[in-house]
Amino acid sequence: MKIFFNSEATIDQVAKAGETFLIHLYGGNPRNSACVFNHLRYTLFTQSVTKTRPTLARLPPTVDAARFHALRSYLQIQKWLGHEKNPLEWGWVPTRFGLSPRKMERDAAP
Predict the structure, then answer these.
(1) Other CB atoms closer than 10 Å to residue 87's CB: what's the count?
(2) pTM here?
(3) Which residues pair with 94 in a beta bridge?
(4) Using an 8 Å Cβ cutoff, are 77 and 29 in contact?
(5) CB-count burial class (<10 Å; 0-12, 13-18, 19+) for 94
(6) Furthest-apart CA pair in the chain: how many Å?
(7) Going by fewer Cβ within 10 Å, which terminus of the chain is more open, N or C?
(8) What whole-number distance in Å separates Cα of residue 33 and Cα of residue 50?
(9) Dist CA 42 CA 60 (whole Å)
(10) How do residues 66-84 score in pLDDT, each as one tens digit?
(11) What's the rounded Cα separation, in Å, for the pair 75 and 27?
């Protein structure tokens, strides 16, 4: 998680660190090459729907949504550390009301 404190981190580094964190959070093993984020999400989904009362709210976010969340988290940490970054490069989009979080660019499912 040190990458979130590095003011020179790239978008890809931050996104990868965020994905690794979420894999840990949801009980996966990021060292296992078979355990990529989409596979973990699929596995948790199939486990959830086999139960009497599936809890889809407990599923991890999509890779795309997780990426933007990691970018926005990084931006906030950098702001706390006194490093100003362009929010439009770190998961925010302009609206007529100000900035709004970018949620996803890809479809959640095929």
Answers:
(1) 18
(2) 0.83
(3) 99
(4) no
(5) exposed
(6) 49
(7) C
(8) 26
(9) 10
(10) 999 999 999 999 999 999 9
(11) 26
